[in-house]
């Protein structure tokens, strides 16, 4: 589970080694760092993610951006992507785009789901309402085969 910028670690881990994971939760996190500088909150994120207007900066961003690194036909683990419609850091487009890319590329049978909180912001499952955290753990327990969480 990766929350906010920590989702970059989760996103890159499942892209690099999908065989090591049964489930992943990408919570209010960026996934597509290319063009981040032109997002509404881009200016404050430049020091953290870099500047995509130079060749060196773009190379570094591409190396760290999970969205660009997703490969077609790979069997990815189950992924729950959570976004908040009112997220002031990484709007819902980040999560929706990442979930759609994983769904299109996934060569396996594991689900990739988008959980869009219509009224949520950048409060994340961990800090938001308890039902969000319960949903995240229920998803993980379901996908990891816990007998009490199977349909």
Give your account of this protein's structure.
The longest helix is centred in the middle third of the chain and has 14 residues, at 92-105. This protein has seven helices and four strands, in the order βαβαααβαβαα. It is of the alpha/beta class.
Write the layout of secondary structure elements.
Elements: E1 2-3, H1 6-16, E2 23-27, H2 42-49, H3 55-64, H4 66-69, E3 78-84, H5 92-105, E4 112-117, H6 124-127, H7 130-143
Parallel strand pairs: 1-2, 2-3, 3-4
SSE sequence, one letter per element: EHEHHHEHEHH
Oligomer: single chain
Which runs of at least 5 residues are low in confidence (pLDDT < 50)? none
Percentage beta strand: 5-15%
Strand order of the largest sheet: 1-2-3-4
Question: Main β-sheet, in a few words?
Answer: 4 strands, parallel
Shape call: globular
Roughly how much helix do the residues carry, as a percent range?
Answer: 40-55%
Number of helices: 7
């Amino acid at each position: 589970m990766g929350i906010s910028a920590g989702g970059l670690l989760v996103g890159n881990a499942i892209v690099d080694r999908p065989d090591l994971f049964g489930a992943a939760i990408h919570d209010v996190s960026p996934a597509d760092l290319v063009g981040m500088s032109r997002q509404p909150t881009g200016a404050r994120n430049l020091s953290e993610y870099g500047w995509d207007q130079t060749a060196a900066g773009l190379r570094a961003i591409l190396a760290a951006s999970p969205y660009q690194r997703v490969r077609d036909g790979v069997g990815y683990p189950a992924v729950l992507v959570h976004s908040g419609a009112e997220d002031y850091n990484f709007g819902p487009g980040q999560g929706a785009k990442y979930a759609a890319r994983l769904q299109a590329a996934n060569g396996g049978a594991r689900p990739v789901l988008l959980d869009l909180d219509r009224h949520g912001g950048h409060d994340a499952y961990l800090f938001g309402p308890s039902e969000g955290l319960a949903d995240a753990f229920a998803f993980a327990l379901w996908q990891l085969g816990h007998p009490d969480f199977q349909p």
